[in-house]
């Protein structure tokens, strides 16, 4: 099953994706604003992809595929895995899920692909999962991510003080939310 955006395609992750995931998780620039925990060896990443339960309501992990040529506009041509988007923590009686996204292939940054992927994942959440709300947290200095979320319709709902440490500084995070019907 694929979820399609204008240029990206979302699909389930496979054990063969382990090398890309491992490489991204070891790239300090990619992981700069993320709560990554300890980077794992390649064999652990592969085992995690093999052993994790298949996508279910409470944890939907999509690989983001983009045209293999980063400059290409349309859906034709080859495709390449460039990042991940995840909706987690949903339960039907709660009606809410948390969203995470990152693009691990940096040459694909700044081309609108994350905006397209967040939009497609939220549409999937509202339409296929019947969610009422999607939430997330983001470090207040992560301007690129904030711009993506605002473009899609997320609004700041609160500020968590000093919950993220980077380079010896404690930073705040916004909590953001997007209600059903607010997706832009
Ligand atoms: C954040 C991230 C997902 C954005 O992906 P992307 O595909 O480059 O995003 P888009 O191209 O759709 O949009 C980026 C927007 O941020 C803006 N932007 C980029 N860098 C910026 C900066 N340093 N300051 C201000 N705005 C910035 C761009 O201009 C663009 O806005 P625009 O379309 O209005 O011009 C990607 O950079 C990434 O994966 N980063 C590392 C992981 C991460 O931070 N994930 C989010 C954790 S909450």
Provide a descriptive summary of the structure in words:
This protein is of the alpha+beta class and 184 residues long. It has a single domain (3-179), classed as Gcn5-related N-acetyltransferase (GNAT) (Aminopeptidase). The protein has five helices and eight strands. The protein has an eight-stranded mixed beta sheet, sandwiched between helices. A hairpin with a 2-residue loop joins β7 (155-166) and β8 (169-179). α1 (18-25) packs across α3 and α4 packs across α5 (143-152). The chain is globular and about 40 Å long. Coenzyme A binds at residues 30, 33-34, 101-103, 109-115, 138, 142-145, 147-148.
Structural class: alpha+beta
CATH topology: Aminopeptidase
Mean pLDDT over all positions: 94
Strand content: 25-35%
CATH class: Alpha Beta
Give the helices and strands as they follow along the chain: EEHHHEEEHEHEE
Largest pleated sheet: 8 strands, mixed
Low-confidence stretches: none
- CATH architecture assignment: 3-Layer(aba) Sandwich
CATH superfamily: Gcn5-related N-acetyltransferase (GNAT)
Percent helix, as a range, is 25-40%
- The total number of structural domains is 1
- Helix count from the secondary structure assignment: 5
Rg over CA atoms? 16 Å
Number of strands: 8
Distance between the termini: 24 Å
Main sheet strand line-up? 1-2-3-4-5-6-8-7
Coarse shape: globular
